[in-house]
Amino acid sequence: MLSNRRRQTLLGMVSGPSRLWVILGALALLLALTSSASALSLEDIKRMASAGLDENTVISIIENSGDKFEFNDTVAKDLKKAGVSDRVINVIKAHAKGAATTDASTDVGTDTSGPEPLPAGVGNLGKLMAQGAKTAKQQFDIAAAATKRILAQQKTDQDSAKMQLSFQGVTNALRDFENVDKWQALATCHNFNVEFKPAPNTDEYYDALFCKGSAFNALELHNLAAPILRDVVMYGGERPHFVDAFDQLVASAEAAAYFPASLADLDKLYIDDKYHDFQNRFNFFVGRFFMDNMGEYERAIALLAQVSADSSLYPKALYATGVMQSNPKVKMYKTAVENFQGAIVAGEASEDKTDDEIVELAYLALARIAYEATNYDGALYYYNKVSHFSSRYPQALFESAWTYFLKGDHRQALGTFHSVASPYYDDHYFPDLWVLEATVYLNLCRYDEAKEALQTFQDVYLAKLPYLTQFLASMNDPMGYYQTVVEMAENRSANSELPTLFLEAVLADVEFFNLYHVVTEIDREVNMMKEVAPQLGAFGTDLLTSLERLQETKRFEAGLKTQHILKGIEDELRDWDVTSTEVSIEIDISEKDLDEVCLRLAAQGKPCEFVSEEATVLFLVADDWQFWPFEGEYWVDEVGNYKSYLGDRCNQVEAVAATTEP
Predict the structure, then answer these.
(1) How many Å is the Cα radius of gyration of the chain?
(2) How is 21-71 classified by DSSP, letter by letter?
(3) Is 636 helix (H, G, I), strand (E, B) or coil?
(4) Considering only Cβ atoms within 10 Å of each terminal Cβ, which end of the chain, N or C, has fewer?
(5) pTM for this one?
(6) Tens digits of residue pLDDT in 554-568
(7) Which residues, listed in sequence order, are joined to residue 619 by a DSSP beta bridge?
(8) Which of the residues in the chain have pLDDT under 50?
(9) Amino acid 659: pLDDT
(10) Quick one: DSSP state of residue 13?
């Protein structure tokens, strides 16, 4: 039997620093109680509760001890504070001095099992020893589990300390991002999330992700940066890096043409608490995304309408809104005209040179709306607003030629055709130019000039059509079309498989140009990664692989677009070939009619003659027209001001025919 001093030593072990020793101390207490006649105290019970002994075991010890306790409300509160359960407190209360003997274990909770009954004939000491033997394994298991938890917690604490030490590198990189080595920052932030795998909702994960996206953006690896920055932005406007991440996303997305459908979630973010200029940038970018990539005009218009008049993006927002409103599916032409006019006014007042392009585009848009409404004078007014030195002027000039043609102003139409045919625009693809000119000459009963125009169409376009057909039939891989076009554009070889005329038509296509820009950007990033990938190990290899896959996808897409454009050119030329044949037939019929008139004149002894003119075109000087007799010569500052001086010979033919009728 243990002495009180030894017993107190064992009981004192529960106050040590290690939970394992606490539990082992509780086991020692249990053994001491089973081998000692000393009374069980409330302090003993509190130590057992603190050590985590099973509730049933504690109740068994109390009931089998036969001891009585001092009990009142103060004692109950003290026991509760020490972690003793309500059920055990009820048992103590039932064993209080002066209390009636009851089975208090059933007073609290739903577990009414209590300690298992012991075999008959076992005395008080035997009961305690039997109960202790039964619970020994339970307490050993508790101790083992506690030890495991302690070791696990120690490892968790160590990992947490290690993670925080590593995260300091991420924090330092973000704090002094402008001055740090961007490749090192990329590796630090990437390795942190890979090694420690913090939960995505933690600040550590968020900061490391932003650091990684910013490093890619700073290194101009935009195809790698954009998806990461998009994820950072989608954490919401309340996060600290939201504004910076969004601005970087815009830069990378535009460079890489990264506009996935997932960006549609951007307009769900709350930005009302952000500063004014940022709200303008945000609404403009998201509005253009819905316009250009989703075709959701209603959402796009609503967002662009929030761009304020004091923003540098205001002219662009008005123009984009007008484009959507003038779409045949929307048909808000009146409002579109107002927005285009507003874009012109705002753009001309702007100091931003990029707004000069918006002004020109708005003038072209107004001209086309007027053209579709058969307001030809209005259309011509807006076409003439496009600068002669603008890259869009040839298109505006050509469209104005159509306008004069449909208006029935043959002199102006021919003068404009004369301008479009100048050497300044040899690289432009206008196959219908010569057929239209032939039609005008036909309407003027000038058959020789009409035939000459059709022959030019034959020589410039149709004679090259077989080469285009052969080129289209020579390749099975769409990427081959793209590669050939790019090589031709870069080398300008005179012995190219594809005539230059058609090459220029492909290069002038806006969608092809955008794809070419995307592929060129990916090519640059792939070449960069090939140089640095070995230094980045597996991480660099993965980056290079993802870029090369994207490169192949975009090259294939560009190849399909190239093939589509060239096939469209082939089909268009075949259609114009049919139209030119129809015009040629009309010329032949009209010439036969003229021949009959001349035969009748000859029968009357009269010559078949018509008044000839001294010049084909004139050009405008101030408010006066002057002759320009040099058919093959052009001055760039006079292009667009030519007017045909050739008369309408049909009137003369009709007059002569009237005098020769039988």
Answers:
(1) 45
(2) HHHHHHHHHHHHHHT--PPP-HHHHHHHHHHT--HHHHHHHHHHH---B--
(3) coil
(4) C
(5) 0.71
(6) 999 999 999 999 999
(7) 626, 642
(8) 1-24, 31, 34-37, 101-116, 118-122, 614-615, 617-630
(9) 63
(10) G
